[in-house]
Design goal:
Distance between the termini: 24 Å
Largest sheet: 15 strands, mixed
Structural class: alpha+beta
Helix content: 10-25%
Number of helices: 12
Number of domains: 2
Length: 581
């Protein structure tokens, strides 16, 4: 029996997928200090601590292939991946920063806005960080990467305290799109340009789903890891965008990206952008929410069902299905996070348009006043509807990236809640050394077998109007739990986790201020993970895998009639719990 206590504190392309795959061996991830010491940077480029580590490694004869080995590792546990010691323990002393890693500008052939337009609006709508991700391709590689950089640097100067990253939307060889971005530095343009020229699927004519193209995607992720290890950039991350939109990101490809270098490949969009797409005709485009209006084709992975090509409560099917693909990845005990963002190209309710002259040498001219309000567009401004919250040790570029890598993220739509804090702790077994140990989002709690494990969820209800001018109401919170098998599935194309289900639901209607839910997770006898989601409760139905798994999941969005403002959810990343003996 469990006990719960609540307390108030007031595109589509030619693509075929095979099922062949290889199984790698498990390795621990070297920490950043070791990677720097093992790199080919000169001694003069190292910090004193890094140089000291290099001297020790030389004395021990540990040199050479360490960095290359790290780039090729098949996967790590979340605890190994975090590598931040006390800074991440229990998620304390963190600053939660809201952001968006998928934003387009006039340097995308289907975009329109200046960098400063997107950055200023993102800041006005409450974002702390954002990534400019114009479409990869020949024009972007030739012109756009260099042309956008001065605009990004200017935005950084104009908006002090707002973190504006440079990235790009990668045409993943043999697959969909993805966000790639790097920490600011003197080589940010050089590294992104080299990456795009060498590994972009459009530039390399590598969009078809062949084994060679799949390997090229893996090599691209490993190359990014090498750039960090060699200190050409301070950091780099990759997340897959709108993964279920066309059904061309197969399960084995996603696993291959993750395992190529878990320091670089950290997750996918749990909720796509284009959330205004489902607004009905008359005051919206009358299309599919998220742009998910497709169906299986010759380029799609054959195992995905027709309903996977739609959003569910605005979230991608891979994330919204309890016991689905995201859970099948988490059940392997390896990090894989979700995000939410705008994918802003041309925004609903805006009064500007593109100027005459067209897309020349990788860009449009600056937008001009249109004289009318655009209600037929599918995008919202960054921060207007979707947010990804990252627990960072401070307000800096590297801290945001470290928080994302560690999985310290939760996402929401429509400003459903103000804050979410998740703690999982061991209450001990007698005088167990692990009594009182605590972990938060993205972490792995290691406790003695037989310990009692407790979830402590603290939520601050929303008390301010969102950007559609109403105060959202959080009416239900769901707890999802799944067993962990670190040996992984025998089939790398598996996309279900049979042992994962919703195990508890809490009615939070009418709750105000900050309240805490304390829940007994039972005695620890085998590895497991937990994650949470919350909703306004307006649209629910049994989950895609049945009511016994998820009795009140998000509802399948109907094309042409999916108003995003009356169907709000938040989702957290997981916390793993592992017995030590």
């Amino acid at each position: 029996m469990t006990h719960t206590h609540t307390h108030e504190h007031e595109h589509q392309h030619q693509h075929t997928h095979g099922h062949e795959h290889t199984h790698g061996h498990e390795h621990s991830a070297p920490d950043d200090l070791t990677l720097a010491a093992a790199s080919d940077a000169s001694d003069a480029d190292l910090t004193p601590r890094e140089l000291s580590r290099r001297v020790l490694m030389r004395a021990a004869g540990v040199t050479g292939a360490l960095t290359a080995g790290a780039a090729g590792m098949s996967g790590v546990t979340p605890a190994m991946a975090a590598g931040e010691g006390a800074a991440s323990r229990g998620g304390r002393n963190l600053t939660w920063l809201a952001g968006d890693h998928h934003i387009h500008t006039q340097f995308s052939s289907d975009g329109m806005y200046r960098v400063q337009d997107q950055a200023q609006n993102g800041r006005a709508y409450g974002l702390d960080w954002m990534v400019i991700t114009d479409h990869g391709g020949a024009d972007h590689a030739r012109y756009g990467v260099e042309k956008v950089n001065p605009e990004i640097r200017e935005a950084r100067e104009q908006l002090p305290g707002t973190l504006v990253f440079q990235g790009l939307e990668w045409n993943i060889p043999a697959a969909e799109h993805g966000t790639v971005f790097v920490a600011p530095g003197r080589r940010e343009v050089e590294v992104l340009k080299s990456f795009e020229s060498t590994y972009d699927g459009s530039v390399r004519d590598a969009r078809d789903g062949t084994p060679a193209n799949e390997k090229l995607a893996v090599a691209a992720i490993q190359w990014l890891g090498t750039q960090v290890a060699r200190r050409r950039v301070d950091d780099a991350l990759f997340l897959a965008n709108h993964p279920a939109r066309n059904g061309i990101d197969s399960p084995h490809e996603i696993r291959a990206w993750r395992d190529a270098d878990p320091r670089i490949a950290i997750g996918f969009e749990g909720a796509p952008g284009h959330q205004a797409g489902g607004l009905p005709k008359g005051y919206g485009p009358g299309g599919a929410r998220g742009g998910y209006g497709n169906s299986p084709g010759g380029s799609s992975f054959a195992g995905y069902p027709p309903e996977s090509y739609r959003t569910w409560g605005g979230f991608d099917w891979m994330t919204s299905t309890v016991g689905g693909l995201w859970d099948s990845l988490l059940a392997e005990g390896k990090p894989w996070s979700i995000s939410a963002n705008s994918d802003s190209h041309r925004n609903w309710g805006d009064t500007s348009t593109r100027p005459e002259g067209g897309f020349v040498e990788g860009q449009y001219g600056d937008p001009v006043y249109a004289g009318e309000i655009a209600l037929d567009r599918s995008d919202f401004w960054p921060g207007f509807y979707s947010r990804t919250h990252v627990g960072a040790s401070d307000r800096s570029y590297r801290a945001v990236m470290a928080g994302m890598r560690a999985g310290r993220m939760w996402v929401d739509h429509g400003r459903l809640v103000k804050a979410v804090d998740v703690q999982v702790r061991a209450t001990g077994r007698g005088r167990s050394a692990t009594a009182g140990a605590t972990e938060s989002l993205g972490g792995t709690l290691r406790a003695a077998r037989g310990s009692r494990i407790q979830l402590v969820l603290t939520v601050t209800a929303q008390d301010l109007p969102n950007w559609s001018q109403f105060v959202p109401s959080l009416n239900r919170i769901d707890l999802v739990r799944g067993a962990v098998d670190v040996s992984g599935p025998s089939d790398r194309d598996a996309f279900t986790a049979p042992d994962t289900k919703v195990v508890e639901r809490w009615d939070t209607s009418g709750r105000t201020g900050t309240f805490t839910i304390t829940h007994d997770l039972g005695t620890l006898d085998a590895p497991f993970y937990v994650r949470l989601r919350g909703t306004d409760g307006n649209h629910s139905q049994p989950g895609a895998l049945g009511a016994q798994i998820d009795a009140e999941g998000p509802k399948l969005d109907v094309a042409g009639d999916a108003d995003p403002w009356v169907d709000l959810w938040f989702y957290t990343n997981p916390v793993w719990v592992v017995p030590t003996r």
